[in-house]
Amino acid sequence: MTLFEILEFNRELIAKLVAAGVKADDCKYIDLYIEYTSMRRRGEKVTYAVTVLAVKYRISERKVYALLKRFAADCTRRAAE
After folding, report:
1. CA–CA gap between residue 65 and residue 33 (Å, rounded)
2. What is the Cα–Cα distance from 65 to 38, expressed in whole angstroms?
3. Is the dihedral angle over the CA atoms 79, 32, 25, 4 positive or is it negative?
4. Which of 60, 67, 73, 81 has the fewest beta carbons under 10 Å from its own?
5. Torsion angle, CA of 77/64/51/41, rounded to 10 degrees?
6. DSSP letters of the chain?
7. End-to-end CA, the chain
8. Whole-structure pTM value
9. Alpha carbon of 23 to those of 5, 15, 52, 64, 68: distances in Å?
10. What is the chain's Cα-based Rg?
11. pLDDT tens digit sequence for 8-62
């Protein structure tokens, strides 16, 4: 299967994801967000959780904060349009 065929087959879903603000590489950080929410439930401070996750995923703390903000954002309204 070619890239074009995959895109064509999933065109509607991809368009909704883009409208919702999803970036192509966001799927790499799903586990990061799950770990962050788990750490917060255990009572860890935000700064500590961000630092630990930045080191573990080898990304900047700024990128972790941006991911957390994007993943927590309500996208229902934009995706429905």
Report:
1. 10
2. 16
3. negative
4. 81
5. 20
6. --HHHHHHHTHHHHHHHHHTT--GGGGGGHHHHHHHHHHHHTT--HHHHHHHHHHHHT--HHHHHHHHHHHHS--HHHHH-
7. 30
8. 0.80
9. 20, 11, 23, 14, 13
10. 15
11. 999 999 998 888 888 889 999 999 999 999 999 999 999 999 999 999 999 999 9
